Amino acid sequence: MPSEEGKARRAAAREKYGPQLRESFKVLDKDGSGYASVEEMTKHMVEKGMVKPGAREKEFVKSLNHYLSKMNYGKSKPGELNEEEFVKFWADLYALFDKIDKDGDGAIEIVECVELLDERAEKFGLTKGDLYKRVVSFYNKVDADGDRKISIIEFFLRLPELEEALMNAKL
């Protein structure tokens, strides 16, 4: 069950990113169906240069399908989102990203990852040194372009993997 803090963070992100996301929805719903399909969202992200064609594009589709099947936004069509669902889906991702991106620069630096997970080290029975090694290893895998920052897209592509690692206490 979502915490009050989480609900507030998602509401704030929906307010902050909503107008931009509504504009994006209108652009990518090229067929005018009122729904954004996985194909339309992927094509839009590739056209904007946010996702590179090929392997990264396939990872994007995989993550998108994972979350569309996992999350419940009152989806009226499987594998597609109407405008309201689209805004909620992407704003909620931004809310999670922004929670980690403490300085608000639009990228997650390694120190921000360590700070977030530092308080959880004991819960997973890890020393701070062991946690740091695991965070660095995961961070280097996620930072696909090697710029020492994790973008929102890099974050989204690896989020299912991160969740699994956390659930299995592998991180």
Automatic annotation (TrEMBL):
Q: Which GO terms describe its molecular function?
A: calcium ion binding
Question: Does this entry carry the keyword Cytoplasm?
Answer: no
- The molecule here is called EF-hand domain-containing protein
Keywords of this protein's UniProt record, alphabetized? Calcium
What InterPro entries does this protein map onto? EF-hand-dom_pair, EF_Hand_1_Ca_BS, EF_hand_dom
Q: Which domain of life is it from?
A: Eukaryota
Q: Which SMART domains match?
A: EFh (SM00054)
Q: Which residues form the EF-hand domain?
A: 16-51, 88-123
